[in-house]
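Reopening this ticket.

The earlier resolution said the output was attached, but the attachment link was broken on my side. Pasting everything inline this time so it's all in one place.
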Amino acid sequence: MRKQQDVDRPDRHDGAGDRPPAAMDGDGDARLRLAQDPGTTHLTLIDLAADPSPVVRRAVAARADAPAQALRPLTRDRDREVREAVARNPATSIANLLRLVRDADRWVRWAVAGNPACDASVRRAMAQTADKELRGLLAESRDLEPELAARLVDDVSPEVRERLAAHTHDSDVMTTLLADRTARVRKGLARNPRTTAEHRRALAQDPVPDVRAALVSAVALDEADLRPLVEDRSAQVRMAVATSELVPAHLRQALTDDPEELVADAARQFRPGAATSPVVRAPRVGHRTAGSGRGRAGDAPR
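Inline output:
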């Protein structure tokens, strides 16, 4: 049976001698089924890329086996969701990803950040964009080149630096961000589980309570670093100690007589597993819920 199918069905990668099926002239549902059919030939997909229905064009744009001749015109499609589908498609060429990084619509640009086909040239283009969110998505990338990380360390946006601090794997970048003047950047570093013992020791002595509290809640500290935090001058930090899953029970016990009643109650009532420990969020890649991108200020018209 397989042999018969191979004989009867034209090679999908070879459009020579193939003509669009009759369904091309049918209703939109039929053309959509054709665009989604794994057996549809490349020549037909190229024709469907010019279909009057944006739903059909989106189906072509999302296909990982779509030929370059079909995807190329879709990078300039009038429908932003079609362009967004191309931006996510791992079959999209580097040249087309570079075009989409400069797209007028933010959702399209952000979708490029999550494309596994991105290479260093695309990431360099992202680093040079005026789009703060796109630079933030780049900062969260695991594959970030050292030279781009060095550029983002000095980014004008504290949010971008914070996201770099929370996700970087580079110890030298962490050391640089440890001296950042903006507390939210150091707070991002405090939530990074890849910091070294030296980084954590310095963060435990940070002058801003938010940073110290974030550190206690996010990572396991050496007892020598934890003990001063049990007696921290900030009730916010002591509350973080009282409620953190990562603090040993005997240190939490010391807070049951805390002068701040809320802290003392939290220490007395603590039950392992009762609270959700903070975690570093996975990189955002521009995904959105249906309709969330419609009608927002600053978006290009469809």
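Reporter confirms the inline version is readable. Residues 21 and 173 are 57 Å apart (CA to CA). DSSP finds 20 helices and no strands in the chain.
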